[in-house]
Design goal:
With 129 residues, the chain is an alpha+beta fold. It has one helix and ten strands. It has a single domain, classed as Sandwich (Jelly Rolls), CATH 2.60.120.1380. The longest helix has 23 residues.
Length: 129
């Protein structure tokens, strides 16, 4: 009996971290979509929903732009700043930004950026998981 319970405990030690890791690799979902105006160097995207997330990323749907930094505001009033300094090409996203804490409810995301070229304004999608 003792051998069986030891084997069961050892199995749980291996399985539980794997399940937790799998849930963190879940799919990205769109939480905000906006054309960045290009008149300034900053735009705010309100995030819909009240799910707890641990990562976000910013994607360009139609036109490249340079993303300098992101200011994330949470529903509880907290903030997190992330320097990004990446060119985001059309149909591409920046590297994921880890949110501090144990899952956070995002209220809005402020983008600090510069547009590339003239004409078409970038349509930006914020994704979370």
């Amino acid at each position: 009996m003792r051998k069986c319970s030891t084997l069961l405990a050892a199995s749980l030690i291996v399985i539980v971290p794997t399940v937790a890791h799998a849930s963190r690799n879940s799919r990205w979902r769109s939480v905000g979509l906006q054309v960045i105006k290009g008149k300034g160097d900053r735009d705010t995207i309100r995030v819909r929903g009240d799910r707890r997330d641990w990562q976000i990323r910013v994607c360009s749907v139609n036109h490249p732009f340079r993303l300098h930094s992101v200011e994330i505001r949470f529903a509880n009033g907290g903030r997190q700043h992330a320097d990004v300094r990446e060119r985001i090409d059309s149909r591409d996203c920046n590297r994921p930004i880890d949110l501090r804490g144990d899952g956070r409810v995002i209220d809005q995301v402020e983008l600090h950026y510069s547009t590339i070229g003239s004409g078409l304004l970038p349509l930006v999608r914020v994704e979370a998981r």
